[in-house]
């Protein structure tokens, strides 16, 4: 098993390299880089170079050249002196060839040196550390609630397969799965967060403005009060998937010969179900916990964080993509990809931990 883990860890390196290389290559063909963002800001501010925020000293002692100038590479650069454009490229590192920029970026990323944000005047590591607790808490609570509800419901649906309860709950699950997460989040806001009906939950944020003044228990209650709707909105899709996965897994095990034998020996239905079937049926469900967490953490974070005004990694990555803040874009992509790859390895280890009979190493030989 140790050699299998070592091979998987070594495989993370080329996989991560390929992910970063593909995304870096794509950004070379996307219009509107950081230089264009600065030029657009200048255009919106009447070419007042000294008014550029977050650009350091690049705007000092530089004034527009009324006689033209600029660079043919950048739309809207007419009227700006070439020296100013060159200074922008130098500060953003765009004066170097693409292959050299990528190599320097990957070397820094291997040492977890993600540099500083172009427009926020703060390091990417500090930004990620600041935003990560929101995204992790959203993904973790959503995953836990999905499992706590889906497993008992799926077991009961398997035991009562074909009953009225199974039919009605299947219909509700299919409807819940069909509703997009963002639409369900908007519906929650309308019904329970000050829309047309009730104002039971806050509209935005993770905690209240007076959170620091609250007592310990009041802080915990305030936190869960704010997280209730976002967690519910991000749980809906995974809830449906896990319930059906649990039901089908139990149905497959119930039909096997060892269950018939256990029943023939006179064992109670509860002993058969939870003493024999449960471990085998829950293998795929429990072992998929890391993958489900990553799925909720990645796919739902952007939409849910935006709708509920949660300042997490998903929203950070979206704003960085809009402003072409490359250090933040590639820094968060690197962190997300690394977490996803490590969670994939943890999923395999979960299989082995739950059922020691599984041997991934022997399957590869």
Automatic annotation (TrEMBL):
Residues 132-351 form the ABC transmembrane type-1 domain. The chain crosses the membrane at residues 9-26, 134-155, 167-193, 223-246, 281-308, 328-354. It is found in: Cell inner membrane; Cell membrane. It comes from Mangrovicoccus algicola. The lineage of its organism: Bacteria, Pseudomonadati, Pseudomonadota, Alphaproteobacteria, Rhodobacterales. Belongs to the binding-protein-dependent transport system permease family. It is a multi-pass membrane protein. Keywords: Cell inner membrane, Cell membrane, Membrane, Transmembrane, Transmembrane helix, Transport. One of its GO terms (biological process) is microcin transport. InterPro entries: MetI-like, MetI-like_sf. PANTHER family: INNER MEMBRANE ABC TRANSPORTER (PTHR30465), INNER MEMBRANE ABC TRANSPORTER PERMEASE PROTEIN YEJB (PTHR30465:SF66). One of its GO terms (cellular component) is plasma membrane. PROSITE patterns: ABC_TM1. This is Microcin C ABC transporter permease YejB. It comes from the Bacteria.
């Amino acid at each position: 098993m140790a050699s299998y883990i070592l091979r998987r860890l070594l495989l993370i390196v080329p996989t991560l390299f390929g992910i970063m290389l593909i995304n870096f290559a794509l950004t070379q063909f996307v219009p509107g880089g950081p230089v264009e963002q600065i030029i657009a800001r200048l255009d919106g501010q009447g070419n007042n170079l000294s008014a550029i925020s977050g650009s350091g000293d690049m705007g000092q002692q530089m004034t527009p050249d009324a006689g033209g100038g600029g660079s043919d590479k950048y739309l809207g650069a007419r009227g700006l002196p070439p020296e100013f454009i060159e200074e922008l490229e130098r500060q953003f590192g765009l004066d170097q060839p693409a292959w050299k920029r990528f190599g320097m970026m990957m070397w820094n990323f291997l040492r977890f040196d993600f540099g500083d944000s172009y427009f926020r005047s703060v390091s990417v590591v500090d930004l990620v550390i600041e935003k990560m607790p929101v995204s992790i808490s959203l993904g973790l609570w959503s995953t836990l609630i999905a499992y706590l509800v889906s497993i008992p419901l799926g077991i009961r649906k398997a035991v009562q397969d074909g009953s009225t309860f199974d039919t009605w709950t299947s219909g509700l699950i299919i409807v819940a799965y069909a509703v997009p997460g963002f639409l369900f989040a908007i519906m929650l806001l309308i019904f329970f967060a000050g829309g047309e009906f009730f104002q039971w939950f806050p509209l935005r944020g993770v905690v209240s403005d007076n959170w620091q003044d609250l007592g310990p228990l009041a802080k915990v209650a305030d936190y869960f009060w704010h997280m209730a709707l976002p967690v519910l909105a991000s749980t809906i899709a995974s809830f449906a998937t896990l319930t059906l996965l649990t039901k089908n897994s139990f149905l497959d095990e119930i039909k096997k010969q060892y269950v018939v034998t256990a029943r023939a020996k006179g064992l109670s239905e509860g002993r058969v179900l939870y003493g024999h079937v449960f471990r085998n049926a829950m293998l795929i469900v429990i072992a998929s916990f890391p993958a489900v967490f990553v799925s909720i953490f990645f796919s739902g974070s952007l939409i849910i964080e935006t709708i509920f005004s949660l300042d997490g990694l998903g929203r950070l990555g979206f704003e960085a993509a809009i402003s072409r803040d490359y250090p933040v874009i590639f820094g968060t992509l690197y962190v997300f990809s690394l977490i996803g790859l490590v969670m994939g390895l943890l999923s395999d280890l979960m299989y082995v931990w739950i059922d020691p009979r599984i041997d991934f190493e022997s399957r590869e030989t």
